[in-house]
C-alpha cells in the first residue's frame, strides 16, 4: 500500500495535513505520534470509515478508495480499534465473525460459527473466552482479545492495529506478538500503533512519526534512538519524563485501609496513604488492584475490614458521592465507559463533582463554570478549542487530562488513580506525571494503580504489590527492583 498527501479536515480542525506512508508485504510498520497527531484518523481512512479530502492511496498498484469498512475488509484491510467497538449484547462468535458469518441456504450456520471462532481464539488460550459467551460478561482485557480476533478472522492481507495491547496483561501481549510474527511470516503487512517504544522495538522494523497531522520522520527503528523518535513526536527535545521532587517526611494519614476483603477478588489488603505521598500498587491484570481501588471508593461492596478517610471511619454503606464529599476522588481505567460523560461539555465534565464552586443558591453560573474549567484546561495543556465542546471530540490523551482535571477541580485530598496514563502518548504522560507530582507537593495523598513499572518507579515514594487478591506490605521504592516486583506479583518469595 502507498499513501501520498492524505488530508482530512473536520470543520476548522485539521486532522491530517499531508501524510505519506509506504507499507510492504510481510513487514510490521510502527505508526508513532502523540494523541491528536492523526494516527487514529489515518487508520479510519485506510479502513474505509472516513474518506480523505485529498491525496492518493494505492493497494497492490491499483487505486484504493473504500466506500465503507465492509468494502475495505473485502479488499483485505482490517482494523483493530483502540477504543473497543464491540456489540456487547452479542456472543464472542457473533462479534468475531460479524459481516463474514458462515451460512447455509440463507440461514446462519451456528455450528460453523463456533468452530471458526474457536480456531481463531486458539492463538490466545484465554480461559474466559468461549464462542457462546456474551461479550458484556467479559472483563476489559478479554474484550480486547475479541477485538483482535475479529480482525484475524477476516484473513486480511493488511492489519491495522491501533493500541491493541492497551488493556492486555503481559501474557496476552506475548501471545499477540507471536501471532503478529506468524502473520508477518505469511506475508501480511501490519501497521502497529503503540505509545510504548519498548513494545514497538520488540515487534516492528520500520516506523513513521506523525505530528500535527503530518508525517515528519520515517526510517528503520534500528537506526533511530528513543530520544530521536520522541523529539520528532513532540517537536521539542524530551529530557526528564518524570518530574523531580523532594521526598517529604510522611504527613498525616489521609487514607487507612485495614484487612479489607471484597470477594471474590480482593482477599486481604491493608495500607496507609500519607499527605504528600505517592503510593503505587503493582500487580498483574486480574490480581485485584482495580477492585481494591473501587472498593475503597464504594463502587464494590466490602465484606470485611475497615476504611478510614481523613481519620474518620467510612461505613460500608457510604455511597461514592458521600466519599467524594469526604475528600476522595477516583479516576477509572475505563475513561470512555466511566471516566467521562462523553456527550457533555468539557466544562460539565470538569466541574460535575463540585458544581457548588461555580453556583449560588442552587443556580449554576455558566460564565464562572467556563472560567474555572478554562483554568484547568490551560494548567493541564489540554488541546481543546473551548470548554463548551463535547468531551467525545478530544483525543484519548486529552480526554484523560479532562478526567484528571475533574479531580483537581474537586480538590480531592485522596486521589485514587487507576491506570492514569493508559493508552496515551509520551507528551501527555509527562503532563499528567507533572500534575500528579504537583498534587502530592500540595499535601494530597495519591494512590497510583499501574501495569507500567517504569511509571511506578519514576513517580512513587512507596510501592505495594497485589497478588491473587492479597496486598503486600508497602516499602520504599528504593527497596524494590523490577525483578522483585514481578516475583511478588506472581506469588514468589
Task: For this entry, give a set of tags.
493 residues, alpha/beta, Rossmann fold, six-stranded mixed β-sheet, 17 helices, 25 strands
Brief sketch in words of this structure:
With 493 residues, the protein is an alpha/beta fold. 33% of the residues lie in helices and 25% in strands.
What does this structure look like?
By secondary structure, this protein is of the alpha/beta class. It has two domains: about 1-235, Rossmann fold; about 255-490, Rossmann fold, CATH 3.40.50. Strands 15, 18, 21, 22, 23, 24 and 25 form a seven-stranded mixed sheet that branches. Strands 6-9-10-3-11-12 form a six-stranded mixed sheet, with helices on both faces. It has a four-stranded antiparallel sheet with strand order 2-1-4-5, with no helix packed on it. α15 links the parallel β21 and β22 (about 445-450). α13 crosses α14. It is globular and about 70 Å long. The chain starts with a strand and ends with a helix. The relative contact order is 0.11. The model has no long low-confidence stretch (mean pLDDT about 90).
Amino acid at each position: 500500500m502507498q499513501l501520498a498527501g492524505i488530508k482530512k479536515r473536520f470543520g476548522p480542525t485539521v486532522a491530517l495535513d499531508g501524510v505519506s506512508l509506504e507499507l510492504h508485504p510481510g513487514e510490521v510498520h510502527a505508526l508513532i505520534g502523540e494523541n491528536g497527531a492523526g494516527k487514529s484518523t489515518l487508520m479510519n481512512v485506510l479502513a474505509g470509515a472516513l474518506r480523505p479530502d485529498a491525496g492518493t492511496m494505492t493497494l497492490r498498484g491499483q487505486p484504493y478508495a473504500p466506500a465503507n469498512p465492509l468494502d475495505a475488509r473485502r479488499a483485505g484491510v482490517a482494523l483493530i480499534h483502540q477504543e473497543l467497538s464491540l456489540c456487547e449484547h452479542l456472543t464472542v462468535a457473533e462479534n468475531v465473525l460479524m459481516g463474514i458469518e458462515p451460512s447455509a441456504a440463507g440461514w446462519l450456520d451456528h455450528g460453523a460459527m463456533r468452530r471458526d471462532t474457536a480456531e481463531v481464539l486458539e492463538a490466545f488460550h484465554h480461559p474466559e473466552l468461549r464462542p457462546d459467551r456474551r461479550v458484556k460478561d467479559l472483563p476489559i482485557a478479554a474484550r480486547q482479545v475479541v477485538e483482535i480476533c475479529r480482525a484475524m478472522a477476516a484473513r486480511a492481507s493488511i492489519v491495522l492495529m491501533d493500541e491493541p495491547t492497551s488493556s492486555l496483561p503481559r501474557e496476552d501481549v506475548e501471545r499477540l506478538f507471536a501471532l503478529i510474527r506468524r502473520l508477518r511470516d505469511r506475508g501480511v503487512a501490519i501497521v502497529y500503533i503503540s505509545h510504548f517504544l519498548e513494545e514497538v522495538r520488540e515487534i516492528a522494523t520500520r516506523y513513521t512519526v506523525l505530528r500535527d497531522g503530518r508525517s515528519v520522520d520515517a526510517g528503520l527503528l534500528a537506526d533511530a534512538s528513543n530520544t530521536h523518535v520522541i523529539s520528532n513526536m513532540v517537536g521539542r527535545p524530551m529530557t526528564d519524563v518524570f518530574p523531580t521532587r523532594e521526598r517529604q517526611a510522611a504527613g498525616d494519614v489521609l487514607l487507612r485501609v485495614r484487612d479489607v476483603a471484597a470477594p471474590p477478588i480482593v482477599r486481604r489488603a491493608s495500607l496507609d496513604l500519607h499527605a504528600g505521598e505517592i503510593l503505587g500498587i503493582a500487580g498483574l491484570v486480574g490480581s485485584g488492584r482495580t477492585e481494591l481501588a473501587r472498593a475503597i471508593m464504594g463502587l464494590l461492596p466490602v465484606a470485611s475490614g475497615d476504611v478510614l478517610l481523613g481519620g474518620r471511619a467510612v461505613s460500608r454503606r457510604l455511597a461514592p458521592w458521600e466519599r467524594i464529599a469526604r475528600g476522595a476522588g477516583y479516576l477509572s481505567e475505563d475513561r470512555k465507559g466511566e471516566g467521562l460523560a462523553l456527550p457533555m461539555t468539557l466544562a460539565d465534565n470538569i466541574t460535575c463533582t463540585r458544581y457548588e464552586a461555580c453556583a449560588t443558591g442552587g443556580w449554576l453560573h455558566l460564565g464562572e463554570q467556563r472560567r474555572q474549567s478554562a483554568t484547568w484546561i490551560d494548567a493541564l495543556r489540554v488541546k481543546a478549542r473551548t470548554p463548551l465542546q463535547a468531551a467525545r471530540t478530544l483525543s484519548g490523551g486529552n480526554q484523560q487530562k479532562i478526567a484528571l482535571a475533574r479531580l483537581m477541580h474537586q480538590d480531592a485530598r485522596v486521589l485514587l488513580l487507576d491506570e492514569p496514563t493508559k493508552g496515551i502518548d509520551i507528551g501527555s504522560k509527562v503532563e499528567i506525571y507533572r500534575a500528579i507530582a504537583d498534587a502530592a507537593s500540595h499535601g494530597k495523598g495519591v494512590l497510583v494503580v499501574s501495569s507500567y513499572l517504569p511509571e511506578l518507579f519514576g513517580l512513587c515514594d512507596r510501592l505495594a504489590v497485589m497478588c491473587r487478591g492479597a496486598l503486600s506490605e508497602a516499602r520504599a521504592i528504593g527497596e524494590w527492583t523490577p525483578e522483585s516486583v514481578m516475583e511478588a506479583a506472581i506469588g514468589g518469595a
